[in-house]
């Protein structure tokens, strides 16, 4: 399946960063094709889909502010396995050197399978983030994974996105977004997962109920991901054992 260059392909999760990029593109008059991949191991999918539905309804009412075209979201289930051996091999080569979440491997495979070039990812500016380093490395194996994407908001942080949305009158839409990967049974943000942690650290704590902020303050178990960033060889060993065939 090949797509026209006039259409901007965007991975949209219903979260703050990707929704900011979506609104920015629509305000520029672009035609946007959102993509959403359901991960059966992540309990936040129904919350994300609900948020996307609510945001889409608001966008359709704001045609003067958001003059672009929002195409129906392409929703698909995460594949049972990576189809491209080359992409899988490239990812394994990367994580021997630095920690990179395996979602980039799956997304690269998704793009290759569908013939999508330049899928936009809403990855924001986080100092010290390995993705920022990997994006700027043009040689193999980084090019095999990150060459599939564009990262248009790498120089932007969450508070700058908030300022933009206030200035453009789209903050009410932005605040319909969902960010927690492991919501509680009462549909509250957990306060402990990576997106919750990032949101609170970057000034978005006002969007959390008190109980979520307390859970954030009381988190005491060291995050494996933080450890893995310092010791990529250890992460590669764990990943290899988990995914050995």
From TrEMBL:
Signal peptide positions on this chain: none
InterPro entries referenced in this protein's UniProt entry, alphabetically: QueC (IPR018317), Rossmann-like_a/b/a_fold (IPR014729)
Natural source organism: Marinobacter aromaticivorans
Pfam families tied to this protein: QueC
Record bears the keyword Ligase: yes
Keywords, alphabetical: Ligase, Queuosine biosynthesis
Top-level taxon of the source organism: Bacteria
The protein, known as: 7-cyano-7-deazaguanine synthase
KW Phosphoprotein (keyword) present: no
Broadest EC class assigned to this enzyme: ligase
Molecular functions per Gene Ontology: ligase activity
The enzyme's E.C. designation: 6.3.4.20
